[in-house]
Write a structure and sequence with these properties.
The complex is a heterodimer.
Chain A (H helix, E strand, L loop, with lengths): L1 H6 L1 H69 L6 E6 L5 E4 L13 E9 L2 E11 L5 E7 L1 H51 L15 H51 L4 H31 L8 E4 H18 L3 E6 L4 E4 L1 H19 L4 E8 L5 E7 L6 H4 L21 H11 L2 E7 L4 E7 L2
Parallel strand pairs in A: 7-9
Antiparallel strand pairs in A: 1-2, 1-5, 3-4, 4-5, 6-8, 9-10, 10-12, 11-12
Helix pairs in contact in A: 2-3, 4-5, 5-9, 6-7, 7-9
Chain B lengths: L1 E5 L3 H13 L3 E5 L2 H10 L4 E5 L8 H10 L6 E5 L4 H9 L4 E4 L4 H16 L6 E4 L2 E4 L4 E4 L2 E3 L3 H12 L5 E2 H9 L9 H14 L7 E4 L3 E4 L4
Helix pairs in contact in B: 2-3
Classes of the chains: A alpha+beta, B alpha/beta.
């Protein structure tokens, strides 16, 4: 399922679009993020440094008392906010001035400047700090509360996250919408194409007046179909003409022979020849009729005879029809059905196809053999009609060819028939959108018509 | 029977005329649509054999439609080289009673004509059919020969009923296929023959007179006559 989903172009395009959008977003956000951080950090470090430098100078020039006063003055002025933090301790670690009480343990005794997470008046706070060791064991800490900046960072990241989410969501939604629209269109085209393949050449691919790629494609296909329909029409006309032109002389020939046999009694050998000639003509007529019927099926003209039918009932009737023939050959003919198989089709053609299969099976099974006609539904809901015999079966190399017109396998040479029986079965299967399968029954052959699903 | 042949092929028309005369019927021949229309409208016939494609302005189906519109109910057998399913359907829809495709066997044509004419003559419904000492009760579905009951399968019963309704007439294999099994195709093997011989075994076994006979090159006939 997922691989099919990925393969579909609209989804691939949407995903690619999302990925590209994310790259663009990242390309925009990352330099901004870093330069922003750097600028702010630099400025902060600069201010810290200047502040520290000023305080150290006061200490150097006026001593520790003056520094304490200065610090307290500075802190008092800004007592309300905890942004600027200053602490001066003596060598014993006792607070001398500043707005928080204890020297954070994370800071080493030496001087330095970094970002730390320290405990200020009982609250974990992130600060950028600079601390120096002054002569006489005093230590000075000047820090800047950067939680405020952290909030800004959070907002920035949140905004970035929301933007990313919107891009991804839009990509997926538009991808799915495009996919749905495309699939609907493709489904319409598919349906029309299937109907056309099944022989209904009056069908055309659906398309509206727009200039989209699919419309252009559909319009071109339709023009192609117009041409095919025209060609098939002219082929049909030609075969109708041939049929008529051949039927008339054949009718005359048969008439002459029959007239001879009825009107002018002749010696027995001559009469036998005449009857033989009539039988020959009848064979030609039969082949001719079989070919015309095949052509009729192949052009889809028989679709007009499609009705709702019960395929199991049709198969049962045909088996019943052939039962006396089987009995006369000492053959067993069994019919097994799993219940009604409702489908649309031409009952006469189905009956003829099943009849041909049973006829063949009886020939292959021979005296004392057994033939089984079975109707059922397989796991996928497809309808199965199968005819199996226990005859010699056919070689794998022949299986491809048995549905060709006029093909006669080694096993069937010497039996009556012209080799059109299975071609008719194949044509009927095609007309009904069914597949034909040959399998071995060890010994014997099973031919299965699989319809639908 | 007095018959009309509307057929533009001289050869086929002459063969039909000769064959029909030899079978004891009289036949007129019209070679164009116009003549066919004129003959059919002015003379009473027992049946008409109608070709479809005709010269002379009006074709076979046109004649049939015109006749039916004027209330003429004469049985019409269409005889045509057009063999498609739609051709057949169109032919019967226009008012034809039966459809036979060329080339045809004369026996087939004659048997169908007979059946058509009889159908139009006796449309009465019966409850008992008898042929010689064979009788069939259509209500109780019982069949007996010389008073001895015969056990028939439903399909055999239907087959025998058809043969009895067409007693003393030739019934062809195609007619049986179409009417008993409603199949429009010829099975590769002659299955109908096997059905008939099975039925024959049941009704004629042990009897001194054979009722169900095979007519060479045509079909079968159920008859008590010699």
């Amino acid at each position: 399922m997922s691989s099919r989903f990925m393969r579909f172009s609209a989804v691939t395009v949407a995903l690619t679009y999302v990925a590209l959008s994310l790259v663009v977003l990242a390309a925009f956000a990352m330099p901004l993020w870093y330069s922003w951080r750097e600028t702010i950090e630099e400025e902060r470090a600069h201010v810290l440094k200047a502040n520290t430098h000023r305080l150290v100078e006061i200490f150097n020039e006026q001593g520790v008392a003056a520094l304490s006063v200065t610090i307290n003055a500075q802190v008092d002025a800004k007592a309300a906010e905890d942004e600027d933090l200053i602490l001066l301790i003596d060598a014993q670690g006792k607070k001398m001035a500043g707005n928080f009480s204890t020297w954070p343990e994370v800071l080493a005794n030496a001087s330095g400047g970094r970002t730390y997470s320290i405990d200020i008046n009982g609250r974990e706070t992130r600060v950028a700090a600079m601390h120096v060791a002054l002569p006489g064991g005093y230590r000075l800490l000047v820090a800047n509360n950067i939680d405020k900046y952290r909030r800004l960072e959070h907002f920035f990241l949140l905004g970035l996250g929301i933007a990313t989410g919107i891009v991804v969501l839009l990509g997926i939604v538009s991808g799915l919408l495009v996919r749905r629209a495309l699939l609907a269109k493709v489904r319409d085209i598919n349906r029309a194409a299937s109907a056309i393949m099944a022989g209904d050449f009056s069908h055309r691919l659906p398309h509206d007046s727009g200039e989209s790629e699919l419309n252009t494609l559909a319009a071109t296909q339709n023009r192609m179909l117009d041409q095919i329909e025209q060609l098939i029409g002219s082929v049909r006309n030609v075969s109708n003409a041939i049929a008529h032109d051949l039927r008339t002389p054949l009718a005359e020939l048969r008439s002459r022979l029959e007239e001879l046999s009825i009107a002018q009694p002749a010696p027995a050998p001559v009469m036998d020849e005449i009857h033989g000639a009539i039988a020959d003509v009848d064979r030609v007529i039969n082949i001719f009729n079989a070919l015309l019927r095949l052509a009729e099926i192949d052009t889809g003209a028989r679709r007009s005879g499609f009705v709702e039918l019960d395929a199991a009932g049709v198969a049962g009737d045909v088996a019943d029809f052939y039962l006396p023939l089987a009995e006369s050959k000492d053959c067993e003919l069994n019919f097994i059905s799993s219940g009604p198989l409702t489908m649309t089709g031409d009952p006469l053609l189905l009956a003829q196809a099943i009849g041909n299969l049973i006829d063949n099976a009886l020939k292959f099974a021979g005296e004392g053999g057994s033939v089984t006609v079975e109707t059922s539904i397989d796991g996928d809901g497809a309808k199965l009609i199968s005819v199996a015999d226990n005859g010699p079966g056919i070689a794998d190399t022949e299986k491809e060819k048995v549905f060709d017109r006029f093909y006669r396998g080694d096993a069937s040479r010497g039996t009556p028939g012209v080799g059109l029986g299975l071609s008719l079965v194949a044509a009927v299967a095609r007309l009904h959108g069914a597949t034909l399968m040959l399998s071995d029954t060890h010994p014997g052959l099973r031919v299965t018509l699989r319809i639908g699903a | 029977m007095k018959l009309l042949i509307v057929e533009d092929n001289e050869r086929v028309a002459q063969f039909l005329k000769k064959g029909l005369q030899e079978s004891g019927h009289t036949a007129d021949h019209a070679a164009t649509g116009r003549d066919g229309m004129f003959f059919a409208a002015s003379e009473p016939y027992d049946a008409i054999i109608m070709d479809r494609m005709l010269p002379g302005g009006i074709d076979g189906l046109g004649i049939i439609e015109a006749l039916r519109k004027s209330g003429n109910k004469v049985p019409i057998l269409i005889l045509s080289a057009l063999s498609g399913v739609d051709d057949r359907i169109r032919g019967l829809k226009s008012g034809g009673d039966d459809y036979l495709v060329k080339p045809f066997a004369f026996g087939e044509l004659l048997a169908r004509l007979d059946a058509l004419v009889r159908r139009s003559q006796d449309a009465r419904s019966e409850t008992t059919l008898t042929v010689g000492d064979l009788s069939m009760d259509l209500l109780s579905h019982k069949v007996s020969r010389s008073g001895k009951p015969l056990a028939l399968q439903p399909r055999e019963f239907k087959l025998l009923e058809y043969l009895m309704r067409h007693a003393d007439q030739v019934v062809t294999r195609t007619m049986l296929l179409e009417n008993i099994w409603e199949y429009d195709f010829d099975p590769q093997t002659n299955v109908v023959d096997v059905h008939i011989s099975k039925l024959r075994q049941k009704i004629d076994a042990g009897a001194d007179r054979q009722l169900l006979r095979t007519i060479r090159n045509s079909g079968y006939m159920l008859t008590a006559n010699d």
